[in-house]
Prior knowledge:
alpha+beta; Aminopeptidase; Beta Polymerase, domain 2; globular; 32% helix
Amino acid sequence: MKITKHIDVVSYNPKWSDIFKEEALKIKQALGGNCLNVHHVGSTSVPGLSAKPIIDIIGATKDPEKAILPLESLGFTYKGEYNIPFRLYFSKKENTKVHLHVYEEGHPEIELNLLFRDYLRTHPESLAEYAELKTHLLTQKESFEKNNSLFTGYNLGKDAFIRKVLQQAGFNRLRFMKCTHYAEWEAAKLFRQKYFFDKVPTADPYTWTFDHPDHIHFVLYQGSEIIGYAHFQLWPEQRVAMRIIVIDEPFRNQGFGEQFLMLCEKWLTQQGYQSLHIESSPEAYVFHQRHNYIKMPFNDPDGYEGHPKDIAMGKIL
């Protein structure tokens, strides 16, 4: 489905910095001791860079959930997390639109955005390249469309440049994301086929789950590289099935699988799910047992039957 959007990109405005300072003061006062830092990020934070006239702000807090009501009292509308787990996303439209991204202190997106901003501030050639890319994207029809995505082609078209800058800036944190960008969906398809369906062998028969609301697909980044993928099916009665979790082979035996699983469990718990179920292969049994999964009936409400060698396991979240 295509949705056409208007995109307004304008020359840099020095007033953007002043607007940020005014908003930051209000945010700090409203959040009090829960607020640890407030940062101006995005293109409006880079002097000389053309941008959509939207002030992007990051709020680093002790407890993001406790920030919702105070920020709503300032006129911000809470919109959920979108594609970034553990983010609280807000927007406000007065004279200038403001997007506010609230995280718990230490969330990797904070470092990512600050590194990207500071790299552009100190590397004029990259700033010029980014401005040129924006100009080019605005000539493309696809930039103004949302094709089965939360984001326009304009936003998605900047991804490769952003990854390159993050690599040059030395960003190497683990990031846990919902699949959104076409590169993430391509990685999901590759991991599924390579590590599961090539063994049958057959073409992946479950790509339809990419567009189904009861199926959640995550990727794990190390820096700008996708190194892992997970697929969960949401069941009734606060139950969840872990259909796939995999780390790309060159990155195995380094603790990434454990960290990925813990992030997935934390997100599911935060969403109110109470138990996580898996039909484990014999090869993965010890891994799941080590992370407190026990033998437990799978009880698939759809009646799906797994491989006869698989072992039904589960965990109370």
